[in-house]
Design a protein that fits this description.
The protein has 323 residues and is of the alpha+beta class. The protein folds into 4 domains: 2-95; 99-219, Tetrahydropterin Synthase, Chain A, CATH 3.30.479; 234-279; 289-323, no CATH class. It is 33% helix and 25% strand. The protein contains 8 helices and 14 strands. It has a 5-stranded antiparallel beta sheet with strand order 6-5-9-2-13. Strand 11 and strand 12 form a beta hairpin. It is rod-shaped and about 145 Å long. This is SPFH domain-containing protein. Residues 276-298 are annotated as: Disordered.
Amino acid sequence: MSFFKSQFANVVEWQEFRDDMIFYKWGNREIKKGSKLIIRPGQDAIFFNNGKIEGIFRDEGEYDIESQIIPFLSTLKGFKFGFNSGMRVEVLFVNTKEFVVKWGTQNAINIPTLGLPGGLPIRANGTFNFKVNDYMALIDQIAGVREQYLVEDVKIRITTVLDQLLMKWITKEGKDMFNLQANSFDISKGIQEDLDMEMLKSGISITGFNVMSFSYPKEIQDMITKNASHGMVSDVNRYQQISLTDGMAAGKMSGGGAASDIAGMMMGMNIAGKMMNQQSPNQPVSEPSSARADGQKRPNFCPNCGIKAEGTNFCSNCGQKLG
């Protein structure tokens, strides 16, 4: 008798478990007398027949199907194994963990932007999280016709609609196209809600979505960087000074040799003088030596004899009072 029992018995388990596999359908549709069910950590075992769930078993361990499983099945309760016949039922093993997937736009998304007829080309990357939350929907939409389902399958579904969702939430409420990172939280939250509504139909919940970074073409990024540096400039003169300094630092001064060096040095001294004056607008300016205490200037030449004055109060030639 033990010979026949060993011949018919089988083990219902997730064979060749893969960490990137969302579910696995046990291949043998007929469970024999004396069979065992093995549930490992992070797995749920679902018994279903004709598309209807008979029972869900979540606790890890090894179970005798006849005595510990069948009594809890809905319509198959009380099933009795025959000598040469078994129970025809499907068993689906589901990975219960939360999956984390990296994503990135394959091609640049042209976001409509004022002044750019073709749109602003933007790329983005980040992560999204998901897990199975509705076994009935999973069986109806996917597991009923597939033997297994991988993380890559979900990623493909997500990326097919991601470009449209990025465009929708980037352009929503007139966000600053050149500072999208500041709005990444709102953009991510909106995309997660839309993706979750879409994937719930298949029994999968999007538990998180994150935009890690946005990237622009090099020319646009250079413009953004330069604009940010000039954003610290408070007036036109300071802007011109920075531009001239950038030109000298980049070696864009015309000419060459000693003449170019002297021109650059003079320009630098001029800029430095202007900046010092602007930084100290209230500093008193010293009066020229020819100025009188009452604010009137002394004459440069003696009004009596015409000799050039030397800055004194009296003419050195004729004695005429000058101050």
